[in-house]
Amino acid sequence: MASSIPTFATLISVDRFRELVNKHFEKEVNENELYDPHDIQRFNEVDEYTLMYIQHGQFGPDFDADRALQIFNISMSWRKSHNVYDVSTNEFPADYFDRNGIYFKNRDMSNYPLLHFDVRTFKKGQEDNEAVKRFITYTFERHIRRHPGEKIVILFDLSETGLRNLDLDLVKFIISSVQIGYPGLLAYMMIYKMPFILQAVWRLIRSWLPAEAEQFIKFVDAKSITQYVQPDQLSIAMGGNDTTNYVHLHDPINEAVEDSMNASLKKKVTFADSNSLDLPLSSSPTESIITTDNIPKIDSPSHDELLTPEESNHSTSTSDSCHIVSRKSILQKPNLVNGCMGEEKVYHGLGIRPYDEMIFERIDPLSQGTSDCVQTLQLTNMGDKILTFKIKTTSPDKFRVKPGCSLLHPGAKTTVSVYLLKAYCTPTNNINKEKFLIIWTLIGHELKQAQLIEFWKTVPNSVLYEHRLRCSLSNKPTSVTSINQSNEIHSLHSSISSDPSIVAMQNILKDSITLQKTTIAETARELKQIRYLLLIIFVLLFLVLLLDVHKYFFSFSSSSSSSSSSVKSDL
User: Fold this and answer.
1) What integer pLDDT is reported at residue 488 of this predicted model?
2) What is the CATH number of domain 1-268?
3) Which one has a higher pLDDT value, 400 or 277?
4) What distance lies between CA 277 and its chain's CA centroid?
5) I need a labelling partner for 267 at 20 to 30 A (CA). Which of 109, 183, 363, 565 fits?
């Protein structure tokens, strides 16, 4: 076994550390605002979980209480803000289990489980990073709940990867997770076969890490990885002799993140008005609670499926006479959701253009003021299920929306005309404070208009997606034919300038280019030094050659002189 693997010492008793924490953070623990009460209960009742905080970040011979308390505070706050305790399989596509990108398989020489990150299975810019982050959180959380106190080894497989695969946003999230969200979870990390092109990126990643982190990171290849993992625990591709392949068997009980403690801690969700349901924490994508109590019935046919947004953490289904709500997947198509497509932004299967701001423009000269100001809103169903949408505004007396509520079939597109009434089309009427709210949800069957109206009266907020648009008024008169052109130009500008994903990608690209330039400059200096070294070697070889030639001619001249002297003496 490699001797450089970090060791972890327990420098204080579990009871003593709990006493320190509960005394130091008495206010935070009792108020339940900064910390999740489930995490506090686990900390006070599960010794192995407490040990993770005791052992994390302790590098000296004595226990650093201040550092441990600081880590505890940051960790608990991070977990509460990231809703870690509520994570479930409903928050990411089910195919994340099958793509073999993140999974546990085999163990190292210290019997730590290996968590594989196969980086080549990810494509930067084509992933829903928030869903991937929830899957990572789910993987970590499920492990510490089922195996509290057991450390893991993260194995980053960078073979056959490049800049197109490595997303720094996800790398940063993994680092913050093991440093803050899950202290004491990481035994060490192995980087397998890092390509040369990613070495510059690694310099940037290393700048995010504390100095102590160096001992937790091992760069390995097919030969050196056997210092940490036995060959029978390594795949053939990594130079081992394990011929088995990882296959995920979909089992709701096995996939559930809950443990025995969770079973006794049921969480309640209250819907709007007086119609409410008490729901336990969902444990699988297909699990549901069947009930007919306090649910308003509608005369529409039952829907196959209503996919709930990320804000909901539960699954609900009603009887056949009522609509069904199941939390199967946030995404309809992983390559489309929450990503930019041309000049529109896609949110949970709905393409919206413009997606940031609606600029109302006149269709007649300002002096006449005989017509309303108008803006068009284009909605596209990018998924494979029927969706229904509804548009609301903060000032219904100022605006008219046609259509304000409708259905969209898979792949269908509709244009919504939004009119600002002419009485408000003046610079003195400030509409910058006004906003539009687009609400939508997915349904399984087509509804008639009357059924659709009744549906929107009874649908719970927990299954709705929302997106807001700002409003502004342009003083520049324009023709009807130029409105769409103006919208497209504005939408393109907004998508480039204000889309966080594009800005982040630009920053990452700039950092990568800077790092590559630095690497190229260093390589150029090294090549220059090599050139000087070769020149020196050439000069030395030339001098040696001259010396050999001189010796040769000198010895030949000496032998000739001696022969001549010998001849003369004979005579």
Assistant:
1) 46
2) 3.40.525.10
3) 400
4) 32
5) 183
